[in-house]
């Protein structure tokens, strides 16, 4: 068996396999998308993936990543090296998991990565020290870390004119595509697709009210492929055409109205106000989605 600890570089070439020994993969640099027996996760600095023996797993990194990998020999090795920590370590290693390191554990991983781990003694003793630390306590990767909704909101608004994919927002959140999609819906009551569609429409309406830009230009700025697609979407959601929106603006100015005739519904404000809200009736209709699309990347559908 090769040294227990090793440094490995991953790239966009997807690896799909299994092995008889248990493996721990610690993120050092970059992001590694991981799937173990259908469970998705992302390995990056201060995170690790637990790959039990014989578990089929897939991994790949679109932009490249560097990881410290620990190939754990067997139960006898655990018992000999870890003493009273062996049972806790065995429980840690027997099921797939994505875990978050403490700052001290993260420093230990960094120190080992910079050490001559080709030396069998350093490799074995370093792996034993690391496992003993993990067995003493390690949290699930997503515990106590809500989605960065403010950053997601800002990212969407900055990129409305571009095609947006779920993997783009998942990258902002530091999660796999599948896990991000599930958590976004759970925390906000909306799917990512629904939220992006609402932001496109809201910003388009605001531009109609606040500028004299041509409707076609506004449509392009908020991600619609044509003026007609934007008009149909606006009419379906607000019950108003672009001309009607601007007519209302003119009427409001003439009457010095202080309140908008159609107050923006709650979902058009901050994502922070959307946590655990139930989508309004009809929100699931996607026939007005812009042709630029907001789709889960096919390349990441089956893996994190």
From TrEMBL:
UniProt-listed SUPFAM superfamilies: Homeodomain-like (SSF46689), RmlC-like cupins (SSF51182)
Gene3D superfamilies xref list: Homeodomain-like, Jelly Rolls
UniProt KW DNA-binding keyword: yes
Pfam families: HTH_18
InterPro entries: AraC_XylS_family_regulators, Homeodomain-like_sf, HTH_AraC, RmlC-like_jellyroll, RmlC_Cupin_sf, Tscrpt_reg_AraC-type_HTH
Annotated region (Disordered), positions in chain: 249-304
Matches recorded under PROSITE patterns: HTH_ARAC_FAMILY_2
Keywords: DNA-binding, Transcription, Transcription regulation
Signal peptide: none
Gene Ontology terms for molecular function: DNA-binding transcription factor activity; sequence-specific DNA binding
Domain of life, per lineage: Bacteria
Keyword DNA-binding carried by entry: yes
HTH araC/xylS-type domain boundaries: 150-248
Protein function: Regulatory protein of the TOL plasmid xyl operons. XylS activates the xylXYZLTEGFJQKIH operon required for the degradation of toluene, m-xylene and p-xylene.
Record-given protein name: AraC family transcriptional regulator
Organism this protein belongs to: Stutzerimonas zhaodongensis
């Amino acid at each position: 068996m090769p040294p227990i600890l090793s440094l490995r570089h991953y790239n966009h070439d997807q690896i799909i396999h299994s092995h008889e020994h248990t493996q721990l993969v610690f993120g050092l640099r970059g992001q590694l998308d991981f799937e173990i027996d259908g469970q998705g996760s992302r390995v990056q600095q201060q995170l690790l993936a637990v790959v039990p023996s014989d578990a089929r797993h897939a991994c790949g990194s679109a932009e490249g990543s560097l990881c410290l990998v620990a190939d754990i020999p067997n139960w006898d090795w655990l018992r000999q090296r870890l003493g009273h920590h062996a049972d806790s370590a065995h429980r840690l290693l027997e099921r797939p998991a994505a875990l978050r390191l403490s700052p001290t554990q993260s420093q230990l991983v960094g120190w080992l990565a910079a050490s001559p781990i080709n030396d069998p003694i350093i490799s074995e003793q370093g792996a034993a020290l690391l496992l003993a630390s993990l067995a003493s306590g390690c949290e699930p990767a997503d515990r106590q870390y809500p989605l960065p909704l403010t950053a997601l909101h800002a990212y969407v608004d900055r990129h409305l004119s571009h095609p947006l994919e779920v993997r783009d927002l998942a990258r902002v959140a530091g999660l796999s595509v599948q896990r991000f999609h599930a958590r976004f819906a759970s925390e906000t009551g909306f799917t990512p697709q629904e939220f992006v569609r609402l932001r496109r429409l809201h910003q388009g309406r605001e531009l109609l009210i606040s500028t004299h830009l041509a409707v076609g230009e506004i449509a392009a700025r908020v991600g619609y492929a044509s003026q007609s697609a934007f008009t149909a979407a606006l009419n379906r959601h607000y019950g108003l055409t672009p001309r009607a929106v601007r007519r209302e603006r003119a009427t409001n100015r003439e009457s010095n109205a202080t309140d908008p005739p159609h107050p923006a519904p709650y979902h058009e404000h901050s994502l922070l106000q959307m946590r655990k809200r139930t989508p309004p009736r009809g929100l699931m209709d996607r026939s007005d989605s812009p042709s630029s699309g907001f789709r889960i990347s096919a390349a990441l559908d089956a893996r994190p």
